[in-house]
Design goal:
By secondary structure, the chain is α+β, with helices and mostly antiparallel strands. It has 4 helices and 6 strands, in the order αααββαββββ.
């Protein structure tokens, strides 16, 4: 019983220390002016990402996605996303985001929020349920690019 109590105490202490450590970078912001500028840069790329989907701009999406981009556990790569956008049978008619949050740390950024999309495939319309998204950006050679993204159905 004493071993169990020690293990629980250590587990709880580790949890609280880990939670505090994860929260600490957001509290200790030393250069808020540059973070704000970087956040604006990332949000501009995010807006361009959405515009590229709505306007079927494969060239713009090619510039936005990093060469080592992946999604869905690595099963979807950059070439898959470009091929989908270039497919004349697939059209995105609307894509909107809400509750968007940006966090920047050096040359990495994370954007998360909620999104809704309406699209058609082979002229058959469908509306995707509201979903949560997270995108990881990296800044390479002065340009922000998406390196990874994930999705989950919105919790109700």
């Amino acid at each position: 019983m004493q071993r169990f109590a020690i293990r629980i105490s250590v587990a709880l202490a580790t949890f609280f220390i880990g939670s505090a450590a994860a929260y600490l970078p957001s509290v200790l912001r030393f250069d808020s002016a540059s973070d704000t500028a970087a956040e604006r840069e990332v949000l501009q790329v995010e807006a361009e990402y959405i515009r590229a989907h709505l306007e079927r701009d494969v060239v713009a999406l090619d510039n936005i996605l990093a060469e080592d981009f992946s999604s869905f556990g690595g099963r979807v790569r950059k070439e898959h996303r470009l091929a989908l956008l270039a497919n004349p049978l697939f059209t995105i008619s609307s894509l909107s985001t809400t509750d968007v949050h940006v966090r920047v740390s050096d040359d990495e950024a994370w954007i998360s929020g909620k999104a809704r999309m309406r699209a058609s495939y082979k002229e058959r319309e469908f509306a995707r349920p509201s979903y949560e998204f997270a995108r990881r950006y990296v800044k390479r050679q002065g340009q922000w690019q998406i390196i990874h993204m994930s999705f989950a159905l919105t919790r109700r």
